[in-house]
Design brief:
The complex is a heterodimer of chains A (188) and B (250). Chain A has ten helices and no strands. Chain A is mostly helical and 188 residues long. Chain A is globular, with a radius of gyration of 17 Å. In chain B, strands 1, 2, 3, 4, 8 and 9 form a six-stranded antiparallel sheet that branches. In chain B, a hairpin with a 5-residue loop joins strand 5 and strand 6. The longest helix of chain B has 27 residues. The radius of gyration of chain B is 23 Å and the shape is elongated. The chains are: A mainly alpha (188), B alpha+beta (250). The interface between A and B is large, with 93 and 74 residues.
Chain lengths: 188, 250
Amino acid sequence: MGRAPQIDRKEIEDLYKRYGALVRRRARGLLGDDSEAQDAMQEVFVRVIAAMAEFRGQSQPSTWLYRITTNLCLNRIRDGKRRRERLAEVARGQEGAPLSGNIQIPVEARVTLRGVLAQVPDELAQVAIYYFVDEMDQSEIATLIGVSRRTIGYRLDRFRERALELLGDRAVALGPLPGVSKGEGGTG
Amino acid sequence: MSTVFSSRRRGPDCASDLALDQLACGEADGAERTRLTGHLAICETCTAAQTALAADHGQFLAEVNVASLAADAMTRAERARPTWISRLLVPVGLAAAVAASMVFWQKSDENRTKGGFALRAFVLHVEKGGTVGEPHFGELLHPGDKLEFRYRGDRGFLAVVAMDATKTVSVYWPPGPMTRAVPGDREFALTTAVELDETLGEETLMAVTCPTPTPVSEIVKAVERQAQSGEALDIPCAVSRQTIQKVPRP
């Protein structure tokens, strides 16, 4: 697990060319701020360099980067100062920056989801990000984080319950959960 | 059931951004690649999403100087290395040979903080003949890696427990049956190192701080109940969590 003995700058540049957009897009989507996203992207690549031997061994490096970026951004969202800001967003019902740069999440959902993420346990927040922001299905999420699909369904159920508690009528107004028809909505 | 967040925009057969990213990066295997390309041929929504991702990629390359970014990241990675060592050698007070293999796992802005306290974890990597390991926030630790903790926050009675991927709850600290007093005026090193076992997958570390001395067994039971309910701990204690991922050694 030690530092890879030889890291060529050209190799890092190639990684930026290949994965930089993915990491920045994901960080921007979660953090809602270009400057923070850029900083988060750099932090992710610092970690890539620090764990270069392992990164090179990944058959699907983008999966590894998704996990690292998610955890880093989630921590920033839940950082004390940002947490207060997110809670204020929820309280005001104001529009925040998009929760994802690519996905067309309704404005209210963007704001409320980020606010809820700041208040629920890690294991629920991570699954919610992968499901609601990344639009992964439960099987993809289960593979990504190494737990059973049943656990994913269970955590989504818990997240919905917590969100309903936190948001009240505003949550119900957002409508039915997509994917229920293919069994994505419940535990299982 | 009326519920929250009707944010998912795609149909049941549609591709996630991760799947589209993997396709773009050449990481999708044969069957998945065939499925995705076949779906993209008939799905306007996913095609639009794929186009948006490609456009963002192009915009990224147009906006940034990858040489500068790479140089900055490499410099920061190199600078961080001695900082982690120096922050560990003195406060942890381990023997030099052991301390040389330790790294500071998380920077302060990445510590999970709730209720006015934080638990900082140190990782002692055990392979590669004592070379300095690397910090892995929430990710990619291995069986055999050792953790040391430092507590900073309010005065109280602390226990550190962990729930692994099988939902088994283990006590990491203290070694005795009761929570142990921690000071509120300074950072406090927990004296017992924990070696990660062979159970792979996600593991959640929890620092549980109670206002009074509390049997650790009660905390374990409360954590197990919480795992079933998904609600907050039903004991009058504050909790700070960190999640790690244990994977096999490469």
